[in-house]
């Protein structure tokens, strides 16, 4: 009898504790009401309310406020999942700018770093967040060039890796994948990986596949050898049997402008053949990289190649040298303007600038970011076709300044391409920024507003949302983004940081 009494007493105490927890949960939960919910699935928007507690969504629907619950009136605006930037270079600036206004002002709540073959290792990212909490979430790929530098050495990158070196890179990659890396990234057009063999990349991709991970690539060429580069990534997906994604898909050769439909037909055919190939795209006709990229054969002192670049791979009259440490007077000027200053032809100036940047780097080995160019090398028609492909998600490829895409990609899509040019519905655009992006990079439980998902939200006005960042002011904040939540915490409101830093590392 005493045992039964004790048992019943324990049950009553447990029920009381549970009731108190529920009551406490109710009092601490929040309810967003009076919104047009576009939930990230691509289905039509609807009127609904969203209840969340801590960092998770509890309920979505026709909800009434609970006693003591915080109620947030959305004033009829659109509530969407926080946007996921599948190709970002903001990560390197978070230690200095943890409020991440570049992302939050355009509704981005999660970034994927480690792109183009470069990045930071998982332990380093986690340690950085522990030292300096951040306002956004961050995930990462493991960079192929990082692996090459670690195993081959920084002065040995102008050759393919040996079998022994490939095995050493595979071991490091495998360790990173087990720590939460999303997969392998390559930047095959850049010097650090340009000389790698197809087999080297394929064997590393097989390692990623062994952990059910992914492969994302700045492919080996976006201009003169585009056809071969597309064949290479399709082949990697087919043989390694893993999802492959083309980073910031584009047609950078003037001769190929207008051929985006043919490229997409090739990719769709590969998908029908069983290759899970996808792409991301940013909404600009200008790319941002180094002057060296303009020489597809890496022969920077060849006048013929320099002239070919001027005639075929970029427009010197519209391409701006945004950073040049060897002569800061050149920053902000087009290549044609600089050529006029030097009384040279643009092709000669191109070679001269690269030589001067090299000399500066040798004289200042500690210097970084010595030169950068924003180059006109695409057409809006092709950009629209790539954005509209059903297997393309939106990205920025952005940094904290320089190219306006770092501050304006997502709002530019919503304003210029959705509201003004009407290339797709608002629901489709948001799906491409949220659940499709999450699917393409392998992020779970984000990108949809549904019970059990993380409480990352953006509240915006579809009638006024627009990008303001430009080449003259690349950090101008967007209009129309009213509030942003990361893991249930409001981090951005009225174009200002709330000085809250709930961002976390997201592992696979």
Question: Could you give a short description of this structure?
Answer:
With 508 residues, this protein is α/β, with parallel strands linked by helices.
List keywords for this structure.
508 residues, six-stranded parallel sheet, disordered N terminus, 37% helix, 22 strands, 16 helices, alpha/beta
Describe this structure in words.
Helix 4 (144-151) packs across helix 5 and helix 11 crosses helix 12 (346-363). It is built from 16 helices and 22 strands. The protein has a domain at 290-376. Residues 1-26 have low confidence and may be disordered. It has helices at 2-28, 101-104, 122-131, 144-151, 163-179, 191-194, 198-210, 226-240, 260-272, 303-313, 335-342, 346-363, 380-388, 405-420, 426-433, 435-441; strands spanning 30-37, 46-53, 56-61, 70-73, 78-81, 83-85, 108-113, 137-140, 142-143, 183-187, 214-218, 244-246, 277-281, 286-289, 320-324, 333-334, 371-376, 392-394, 457-460, 481-486, 489-493, 496-497. Strands 1, 2, 3, 4, 5, 19, 20, 21 and 22 form a 9-stranded mixed beta sheet that branches. With 508 residues, the chain is of the alpha/beta class.
Global shape: globular
Proportion of strand residues? 15-25%
Largest sheet: 9 strands, mixed
Structural class call reads: alpha/beta
Spans of at least 5 consecutive residues with low confidence: 1-26
- Helix tally equals 16
Distance between the termini: 52 Å
The counted number of beta strands is 22
If you average the pLDDT, what whole number results? Answer: 92
CA radius of gyration: 25 Å
């Amino acid at each position: 009898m005493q045992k039964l009494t004790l048992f019943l007493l324990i049950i009553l105490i447990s029920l009381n504790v549970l009731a108190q927890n529920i009551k406490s949960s109710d009092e601490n939960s929040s309810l967003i009401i009076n919104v047009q919910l576009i939930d990230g699935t691509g289905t039509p928007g609807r009127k609904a309310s969203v209840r969340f507690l801590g960092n998770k969504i509890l309920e979505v629907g026709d909800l009434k406020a609970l006693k003591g619950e915080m109620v947030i009136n959305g004033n009829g605006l659109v509530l969407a999942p926080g946007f996921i930037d599948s190709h970002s270079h903001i990560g390197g600036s978070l230690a200095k700018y943890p409020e991440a206004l570049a992302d939050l002002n355009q509704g981005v709540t999660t970034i994927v770093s480690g792109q183009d073959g470069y990045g930071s290792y998982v332990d380093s990212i986690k340690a950085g967040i522990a030292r300096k909490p951040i306002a956004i979430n961050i995930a990462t790929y493991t960079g192929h060039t990082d692996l090459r530098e670690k195993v081959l050495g920084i002065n040995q990158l102008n050759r393919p890796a040996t079998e022994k070196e490939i095995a050493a890179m595979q071991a490091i990659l495998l360790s990173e994948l087990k720590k939460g890396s999303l997969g392998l990234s390559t930047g095959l057009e850049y010097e650090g990986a340009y000389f790698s063999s197809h087999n080297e990349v394929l064997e590393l991709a097989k390692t990623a596949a062994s952990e059910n991970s992914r492969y994302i690539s700045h492919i080996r060429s976006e201009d003169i050898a585009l056809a071969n580069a597309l064949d290479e990534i399709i082949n990697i997906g087919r043989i390694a049997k893993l999802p492959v994604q083309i980073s910031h898909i584009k047609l950078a050769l003037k001769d190929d402008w207008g051929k985006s439909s043919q490229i997409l037909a090739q990719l769709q055919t590969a998908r029908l053949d069983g290759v899970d190939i996808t792409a991301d795209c940013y909404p600009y006709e200008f790319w941002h990289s180094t002057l060296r990229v303009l020489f597809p054969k890496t022969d920077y002192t060849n006048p013929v190649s320099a002239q070919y670049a001027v005639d075929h791979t970029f427009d010197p009259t519209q391409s701006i040298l945004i950073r040049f440490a060897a002569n800061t007077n050149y920053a902000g000027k087009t290549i044609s303007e600089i050529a006029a200053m030097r009384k040279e032809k643009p092709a000669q100036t191109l070679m001269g600038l690269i030589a001067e940047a090299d000399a500066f780097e040798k004289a200042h080995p500690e210097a970084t970011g010595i030169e950068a160019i924003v180059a006109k090398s695409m057409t809006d028609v092709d950009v629209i076709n790539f954005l509209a492909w059903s297997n393309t998600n939106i990205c920025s490829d952005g940094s904290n300044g320089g190219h306006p895409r770092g501050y304006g990609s997502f709002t530019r899509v919503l304003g210029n391409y959705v509201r003004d040019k009407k290339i797709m519905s608002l629901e489709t655009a948001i799906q491409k920024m949220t659940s499709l992006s999450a699917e393409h990079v392998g992020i779970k439980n984000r990108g949809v507003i549904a019970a059990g998902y993380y409480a990352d939200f953006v509240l915006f006005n579809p009638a006024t949302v627009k990008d303001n960042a430009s080449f003259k002011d690349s950090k101008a904040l967007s209009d129309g983004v009213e509030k942003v939540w990361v893991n249930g915490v409001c981090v951005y409101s009225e174009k200002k940081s709330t000085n809250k830093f709930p961002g976390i590392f997201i592992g696979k």
